[in-house]
Response regulator receiver modulated diguanylate cyclase/phosphodiesterase
Amino acid sequence: MNVLIIDDDAVDRISTTRILQQSELPIGAIHQAGTGDEGIRMAVEKRYDMILLDYKLPPTNGIEVLRELRGSSDFSTAIVMLSHSNDDELALRCIEAGAQDFIMKSEVTALRLKRALLISSERHFLEEKVLEGHNELRRLAEQDSLTGLSNRYFFDESLKDAIPQAERSNKTLALIFIDLDNFKSINDTMGHLAGDNYLLAVAKRLEKSIRKGDRLSRLGGDEFAILANQIAEPYQIRLLVEKIFSNFSEPTFIEGQPVDISASIGVATYPECGTTAVELMKSADVAMYRAKENGRNQVQYYSRDFHEKIESRINLERDLKNAIQNNELVLYYQPQINTNDHSLAGVEALIRWNHPQLGLVPPDQFISIAEECDLINSIGRWVLDSACEQFSTWVRSYPDMDIVFSIAVNISAKQLRDKGLVEYLQQCIDNYNIPASRLEIELTESSLESSLVALDMLNALSASGIKLALDDFGTGYSSLSHLDDFPFDILKIDKKFIMSIEREEQAKLLKAVTNFAHSMDYETVAEGVETELQLEICKKLGINRLQGFYFSKPIPANEIEKAWF
């Protein structure tokens, strides 16, 4: 057993040494220190099994030495406090500060010292066990169980500590949020075990990317965060991000299959983007969201202008959830005209949101939000029901009309995953007594490839007698090879082929697209007709129906009645 005596009184040190040597304890080395500073240095440099510490150590005292020693995270030595004072309150203070025992110097005998040392050693052993348990619980509380990285709790605490440190050092602090782009598809197609292995691979590559002193955490799911300290120059952040993308450039292998790693990264810096933990995290999250919006697998740096846009989007999302219940959604209708006689061939139902504060909100500002928030099915069903109800009203109210027209409703690829869609549409047709052949369902060409899994749904819709129209035709050339696989009846030629025509020689692309459609025996609709020249060219090309501002913009149902019935 190696013992250190820290005492400013040389006589007391000699006396204590002699008593130790006379005891039956297995004493090895006995070292002495005459000051608190010397004792602290010796205690840290050389590990002792026991320290006998004098309370009075001018200019300080033993409790301060005790607290400094206990403040070291890896210090683990039993300490017995010695004093000439017989003060119970002092003894209690010493124990509370971390001493294992308190002995009056007048009571230091071989027997008393032996008992104190044995008791202190045992007490210290038990304290170490408790500390080990505490540290293990803390590790479990602060560590992500899958990757072994720090978890969200540790990250939050680290960020709170890092901000005042950055302020004191006058250095930039960077917060980097990393969100994996394709993680859900891996889970869905390969299973959760494959997803876990993918996260482990990502974690290892992120660990290779960070600098010494940076803190990497897994926040949960497929989200990671890096806290980059001591940023002296902005280029250091750029280099760090480039290293992350470089380490992600090669695919990882999951169950023998190569899987690409793609991530959207958002960066916010202290103090430019925020001076509190909440502000920094919000800014980094906004930047990351922007990276996803702009095409994924890229980095975006926070800007206040974009933050305001995101805040507006969040508010729209919140309000949209109550729009149906509050009767804020309305349908406008745009006529489709027979090319030959300019009679009404049909109407397209187009949704609008009559927001109580913002007024009439167009669909391009909220449909994408509805899709991301899983509101698109409920909104889509509302559109189908409302359009069918209005169409039924027109048919009943104007039984003597010479014209026979159809009604078209747009649905998204996500709605085709609604397993109850066919049944719901059939209910609408039955409830409102609508001929199925006069109901057209429009699906955009850009979503055609992602809807390959919904081919059975499209076939079921077609089998029910409903007509299917491919909207924005000509914009997604990759889908042409699949076009014959789908039961479409109508091709709606995208407006970009019409609206750009100012002279007849500019109609070559429109002619090519139209010839292709006619060669496949599709009925054709031209969108975006705005001028007399565009109208005449569409007639020459034999396009069946015309739609655009030349005839009418989208208008409410009552205005359709006034203009066309």
Remarks:
- The mean pLDDT is 87.
- Residues 100 and 120 are 5 Å apart (CA to CA).
